């Protein structure tokens, strides 16, 4: 008797469970929403209207996303792409790798989605998508956009080299492409020459060591500057010098940074510091880097500043209030050209929403905000 | 847009219909309990009659190991397994409670099992009693194991409820046993042949042959061969409510060949032996994540897998011996044409060899007390043409001391497992030697006179070693990684009841509540430049309940019905205070899971209906709107027709899977097939 009652209880339980589940049934499918929060006091007259931040998203998750901080309204807008462009199948794409603003357009390089996404800078509305397989970075000059890509032809065992593609920013079509070294990364333009850092990352036993120099008039490679293995970052200062980082081989060749004089196209200085990323503003380069520590069995992260005019490392730090302790993985850096505030992102464990920090020129945290996954690349929007 | 919304409503209304049917079933069973009550009341006046009735009832109930096991056990076997809409072992294990099958979709897509949220690496998979190894990444792809030659699948939380087993049997958080068909020769035959061919969606052609032969009175042989070919293509749908696209999944073609030869001996002196040779070969495409602007894939892999295993068991009075040995050789070639190196297209070859011996000794000290001492030695050797590969070799020595006290109504098992691991590498620093001691205690108790109700409980502490990928597949330095520890606590009951002279002939219930804690969870932590470092960071707290109810019905003489429902509730919480997703549910673990099976047989025709429901989940560690994954559910149906042709048994099967053509993904961006079909013809000679 008692046990029969028990069975009844169980049956009842099963019924209750099924009801619960029906109630918690599938919701309507909707485009990915945008989130907004006010983080600053509005400044309608701000000379720089805002800053775009592209979040890479973890590979295969299709979670590249675009955030926008509007200085004029003080609103941080998270994940703006899908609301404006709900008709784009699977959205912005997989692994956003670079971003740039040129004229009235916003350009986002989406690596795994093999495309350069072109949007209206004011609205974020898609204008066009240009397919470039395995594209990495974008830079601009004289009405043209230049995009580096890891491979020219996919699936050809005899074609390990990458390319730089030239895109006309009016007609939005690819006009030319040129073979460079293997797996090219960042680019910079000084005068009429484009410099691209080759990594050779697909062949760890045979890394590339060069910066390819492309003459923009003939669009041919005119020189390859031997620097060091596995190059990545490449930034130009206002004195005609390039700051190039080498990632080393993560084994016995350490990470370093080099200075190239673009007048002679030769390495003129070596900094024995590991630099993961840097941003140059005026005379100052802001950088961070990490060194493998065998004692702690992890990477230790350091932040630094460098005077590019005299090419000396400064004692000054751009984070002075101890906030650096709470940053797990600094992943992106930018300097506000007017306020000189430093924007630094934390990618945390790569599978969680990141954080964007803003430090005032004295190195104190001004504000921070939650971003998308792996916040990485910035583009300022001028008035 | 409007059309798609209507279609969605349609799906929804049918989904509502399902619990209605379920209620109906439940109400009917509640009613029949009421009937039982009244029958009992009526017979109360005659003591003899009551006794009679009880005897009949007890005779009817089949108390199986499902009831008596002190660790939760779920079984799919024989006819039940044949009726399921399943091609591989992976399809079948979806119906177990407490199980998440990580399914990348399609015939060749990787399918791994995660039991009670502890992680794939904590489940050991045994084929005919010997563990299938994959020390490289610790995962066994269940889609590679055809159901064609499988007689029974058992899933134990914790370990098998039997102390007389290899030390490996004590060494995992949960254990999946795949048992192949054993030769049986009824009515004087000495040869049995079964030929079968399957075909259907995905361009599937799958012929197989099983030949069992009686060589002498004591020795029999079994040969099982299978070939499978499929282009793997299927339609899937992707929508966000505004765009709505249907595309064809490509790049998932597969061709496999399997040959198993076994010799079985049941000798006159009651000793048993088995020798098995298993050979497997495949070539397949690896379809990747479907992301924006990416619909085609070019990666491929080739697997070759051979193992030889032997088994021997003999009893000498109070002493019994069980010995097993195995050698396996695995080769995998991987090709990625999307990556061009200075040596051409990226290609990697992985080669793993394993040698294994096991010895288990049982002493029956007295009627109530057994002691077992088991010892296993395992050697794993790895070779890969990766740059700066460490070429590791791993020696593992497992020793288990186990005891069992079995009384009429109480069964207690306890064991202590010692694990010694030693790694050697040709370059770089190997993992420092590991020496761990882990206990397990299991109890099964029948508190009342009736055999129908039993309580059970277990505590198990175990760990998994960091895999070779965790340790040695790196470009730099050495990694200091500790094993990943789990502690499991489980308390449950089993109940079974049989009924005479009424439609519901049997009902059984197994319910368990559990708490698991995964400590030092091995987590890949990113560092700069996309190189990941692997560290012991995670801490996961898992609380759950598993409910299984099976019932059997006999309506008239010709119609039988069986149903099984399993329900799982799980809270698997990130308990690491330093984690950005502290207190969030861990990825891909739904709070609710349901499976429902209903199968009816009427004369020569039988039908099987199955339903799976996976509740809402998150696909990354933070529980926010961007990581939210909607619930999904599928309805599958199968019809079987058994008949005779020239006095031989013939069986025709038609299956429809994902009947309502629901678009869903188990793993985000790996779309699952829409409605698909399979037909098969089996001929027994």
Description:
The complex is a heterodimer of chains A (383) and B (685). Chain A has 383 residues and is mainly β. Chain A contains two helices and 29 strands. Chain A has one domain: YVTN repeat-like/Quinoprotein amine dehydrogenase (Methylamine Dehydrogenase, Chain H). In chain A, the strands form seven sheets. Chain A has a five-stranded antiparallel β-sheet with strand order 1-4-3-2-29, with no helix packed on it. A four-stranded antiparallel β-sheet of chain A has the order 5-6-7-8, with no helix packed on it. Chain A has a four-stranded antiparallel β-sheet with strand order 9-10-11-12, with no helix packed on it. In chain A, a hairpin with a 4-residue loop joins strand 3 and strand 4. With 685 residues, chain B is mainly beta. Chain B is built from six helices and 35 strands. In chain B, a hairpin with a 5-residue loop joins strand 13 and strand 14. Chains A and B meet through helix 1 and strand 22 of A and helix 1, strand 16, strand 17, strand 24 and strand 25 of B.
Q: What is the helical fraction of chain B, as a range of percent?
A: 10-25%
Strand order of the largest sheet of chain A: 1-4-3-2-29
The chain-level structural class of chain A is: mainly beta
Main structural class of chain B: mainly beta
Could you give a short account of the major beta sheet of chain B? 22 strands, antiparallel, barrel
CATH superfamily of chain A: YVTN repeat-like/Quinoprotein amine dehydrogenase
Radius of gyration of chain B: 26 Å
Which percent bin holds the helix content of chain A? under 10%
Please tell me the overall pLDDT of chain B.
Answer: 87
The pLDDT mean of chain A sits at 92
Residue stretches of chain B low in confidence (pLDDT < 50, at least 5 long) are: 1-59
Distance from N terminus to C terminus of chain B (CA atoms, Å) equals 55 Å
Oligomer: heterodimer
Q: Proportion of β residues of chain A?
A: over 45%
The appropriate CATH architecture of chain A is 7 Propeller
Q: Please count the beta strands of chain B (DSSP E, at least 2 residues each).
A: 35
Q: How much of the residues of chain B is beta strand, in percent?
A: over 45%
């Amino acid at each position: 008797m008692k046990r029969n009652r028990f069975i009844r209880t169980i049956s009842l339980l099963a019924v209750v469970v099924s009801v619960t589940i029906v109630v918690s049934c599938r919701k309507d499918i909707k485009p990915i929403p945008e989130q907004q929060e006010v983080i600053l006091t509005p400044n309608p007259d701000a000379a720089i209207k805002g800053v775009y931040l592209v979040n890479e998203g973890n590979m295969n998750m299709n979670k590249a996303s675009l955030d926008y901080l509007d200085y004029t309204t003080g609103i941080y807008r998270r994940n703006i792409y899908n609301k404006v462009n709900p008709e784009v199948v699977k959205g912005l794409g997989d692994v956003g790798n670079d971003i740039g603003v040129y004229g009235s357009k916003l350009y986002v390089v989406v690596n795994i989605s093999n495309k350069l996404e072109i949007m209206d800078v004011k609205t974020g509305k898609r204008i066009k998508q240009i397919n470039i397989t395995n594209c990495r970075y974008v830079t601009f000059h004289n009405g043209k956009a230049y995009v580096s890509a890891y491979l020219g032809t996919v699936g050809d065992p005899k074609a390990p080299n990458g390319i730089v593609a030239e895109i006309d920013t009016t007609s939005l079509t690819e006009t030319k492409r040129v073979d460079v070294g293997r797996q090219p990364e960042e680019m910079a333009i000084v005068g009429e020459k484009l410099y691209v850092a080759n990594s050779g990352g697909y062949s760890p036993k045979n890394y590339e060591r060069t910066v390819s120099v492309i003459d923009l008039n003939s669009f041919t490679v005119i020189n390859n500057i031997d620097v060091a293995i596995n190059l990545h970052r490449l930034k130009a200062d206002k004195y005609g010098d390039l700051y190039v980082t080498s990632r080393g081989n993560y084994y016995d060749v350490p990470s370093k940074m080099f200075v190239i004089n673009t007048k002679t196209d030769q390495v003129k200085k070596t900094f024995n510091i590991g630099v993961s990323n840097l941003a140059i503003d005026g005379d100052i380069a802001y950088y961070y880097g990490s060194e493998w520590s065998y004692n702690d069995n992890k990477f230790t992260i350091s932040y630094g500043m460098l005077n590019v005019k005299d090419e000396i490392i400064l004692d000054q730090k751009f984070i002075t209030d101890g906030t650096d302790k709470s940053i797990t993985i600094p992943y992106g850096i930018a300097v506000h050209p007017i306020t000189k505030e430093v924007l630094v992102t934390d990618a945390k464990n790569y599978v969680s929403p990141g954080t964007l920090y803003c430090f005032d020129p004295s190195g104190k945290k001004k504000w921070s905000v939650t971003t998308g996954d792996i916040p990485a690349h910035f583009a300022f929007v001028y008035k | 847009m409007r059309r798609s919304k209507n279609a969605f409503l349609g799906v929804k209304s049918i989904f509502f219909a399902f619990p209605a049917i379920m209620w109906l079933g439940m109400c009917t069973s509640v009613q029949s309990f009421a009937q039982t009550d009244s029958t009992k009341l009526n017979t109360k006046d005659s003591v003899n009659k009551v006794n009679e009735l009880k005897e009949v009832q007890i005779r009817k109930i089949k108390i199986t190991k499902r009831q008596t096991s002190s660790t939760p056990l779920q079984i799919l076997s024989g006819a039940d397994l044949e009726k399921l809409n399943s091609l591989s072992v992976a399809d079948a294990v979806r119906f177990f409670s407490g199980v998440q099958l990580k399914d990348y979709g399609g015939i060749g897509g990787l399918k791994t099992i995660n039991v009670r949220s502890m992680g794939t690496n904590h489940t050991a998979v045994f084929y005919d009693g010997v563990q299938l190894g994959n020390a490289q990444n610790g995962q066994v792809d269940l889609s590679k194991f055809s159901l064609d030659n499988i007689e029974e699948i058992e899933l134990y939380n914790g370990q098998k409820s039997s102390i007389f087993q290899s030390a490996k049997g004590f060494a995992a958080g949960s254990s999946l046993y795949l048992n192949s068909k054993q030769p049986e020769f009824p009515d004087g035959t000495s040869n049995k042949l079964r030929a079968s061919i399957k075909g259907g969606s995905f361009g599937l052609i799958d012929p197989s042959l099983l030949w069992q032969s009686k060589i002498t009175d004591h020795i029999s042989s079994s040969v099982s061969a299978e070939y499978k070919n499929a282009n793997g293509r299927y339609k899937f749908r992707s929508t966000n409510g505004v765009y709505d696209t249907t595309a064809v999944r490509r790049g998932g073609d597969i061709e496999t060949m399997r040959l198993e030869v076994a010799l079985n001996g049941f000798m006159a002196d009651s000793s048993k032996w088995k020798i098995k040779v298993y050979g497997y070969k495949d070539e397949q495409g690896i379809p990747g994540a479907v992301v924006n602007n990416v619909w085609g894939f070019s990666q491929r892999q080739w697997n070759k897998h051979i193992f030889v295993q032997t088994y021997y068991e003999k009893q000498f009075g109070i002493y019994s011996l069980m010995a097993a040995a195995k050698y396996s050789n695995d080769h995998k070639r991987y090709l990625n044409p999307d990556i061009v190196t200075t040596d051409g297209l990226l290609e990697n070859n992985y080669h793993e060899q394993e040698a294994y011996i096991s010895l288990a000794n049982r002493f029956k000290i007295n009627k109530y007390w057994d002691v077992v001492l088991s010892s296993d030695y395992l050697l794993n050797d790895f070779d890969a043409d990766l740059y700066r590969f460490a070429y590791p070799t791993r020696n593992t020595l497992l020793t288990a001391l186990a005891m069992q006290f079995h009384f009429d109504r109480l069964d207690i098992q306890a064991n202590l497992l010692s694990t010694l691991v030693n790694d050697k590498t040709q370059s770089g620093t190997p993992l420092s030697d590991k020496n761990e001691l882990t206990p397990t205690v299991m109890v099964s108790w029948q508190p009342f006179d009736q055999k129908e109700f039993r309580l059970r409980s277990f505590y198990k502490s175990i760990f998994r070693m960091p895999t070779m990928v965790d340790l040695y597949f790196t470009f730099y330095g050495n990694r200091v990684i500790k094993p990943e520890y789990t502690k499991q606590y489980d308390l449950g009951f089993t109940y079974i009841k049989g009924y005479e002279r009424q439609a519901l002939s049997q009902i059984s219930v197994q319910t368990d509540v559990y708490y698991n804690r995964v400590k030092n969870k091995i987590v890949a932590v990113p560092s700069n430049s996309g190189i990941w470092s692997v560290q012991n960071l995670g801490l996961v707290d898992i609380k759950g309940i598993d409910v299984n109810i099976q019932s059997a019905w006999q309506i008239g003489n010709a119609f039988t019905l069986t149903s099984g429902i399993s329900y799982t509730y799980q809270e698997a919480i990130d308990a690491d205070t330093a984690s950005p997703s502290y207190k969030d549910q861990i990825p891909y673990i739904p709070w609710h899971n349901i499976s429902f099976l209903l199968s009816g047989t009427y004369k020569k025709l039988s039908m099987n209906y199955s339903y799976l429901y996976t509740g809402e989940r998150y696909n990354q560690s933070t529980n926010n709107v961007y990581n939210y994954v909607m619930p999904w559910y599928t309805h599958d149906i199968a019809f079987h027709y058994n008949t005779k042709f020239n006095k031989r048994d013939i069986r025709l099967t038609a299956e429809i899977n994902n009947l309502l053509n629901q678009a869903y993904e188990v793993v985000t961006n790996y779309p699952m097939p829409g409605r698909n079909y399979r037909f098969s013809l089996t001929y027994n000679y």
